[in-house]
Amino acid sequence: MLTRPLAxxxxxxxxxxxxxxxxxxxxxxxxxxxxxxxxxxxxxSGEAGDTGSFGPAAEGECAYVEDGNPSKDVDLPPADPTxxxxxxxxxxxxxxxxxATLDAASTPCTVGSFVSxxxxxxxxxxxxxxxxxxxIFVLQCGDPTATGTGGPGxxxxxxxxxxxxxxxxxxxxxKTPYPDSGGSQFFIVYEDTPLPAQYTVFGTVDAAxxxxxxxAAADGADDSNGPGDGAPNTAVDIEGVTxx
Length: 244
Description:
Helix content: 10-25%
Low-confidence stretches: 1-17, 19-29, 42-53
CATH topology: Cyclophilin
Strand order of the largest sheet: 4-12-2-3-10-8-9-6-5-11
CATH architecture: Beta Barrel
Structural class: alpha+beta
Order of helices and strands: HEEEHEEEEEEEHEE
Number of domains: 1
């Protein structure tokens, strides 16, 4: 799922690896946020930069597709999002509370899913399974199995403009190299990161939260996926996510 930063193209592939997906696929060390299901924040084996098949979900229609492989049993989010505007959430973690603002106006399906999962305690008791410290700078979370293969049992549509960038503080979805393959895995960018515009940006983490993630990242990763790519040496565990 996650590839390592070997070069610019490798980094792009890693992004795909860090992205999260609903089904469980194998994760390859890459420089992008893809999941083992293919979801990664770094560029994955997908075609980096090719956003032609991507686009925002139709207004009022969130096509959540069940894949029959949930890491935790949860209900599907409503197809018609009940979220709107900016939504404040707090991720209670072992490195402190991370405050984030979700953008339901631009990404209603993604935010609708995230809020639904949070309210069903899907993220409670989970561990952020991947940290990258070379090429791209992201912490990837949202997999109850902490393997990079876990998801909620459904996939969500991409919501992309094709102009996405990933500065520090970005909160975005991990995915496989394929369109509309996000699930529950997400990544937090703690330092400006070059990624292709293939990962749905659905919110921002405040400065204090970014600092906390960066401090944890300073302790490095275990390199299990390659140099500067693996489980964080300083564990980041999510106790729960509170909406509002």
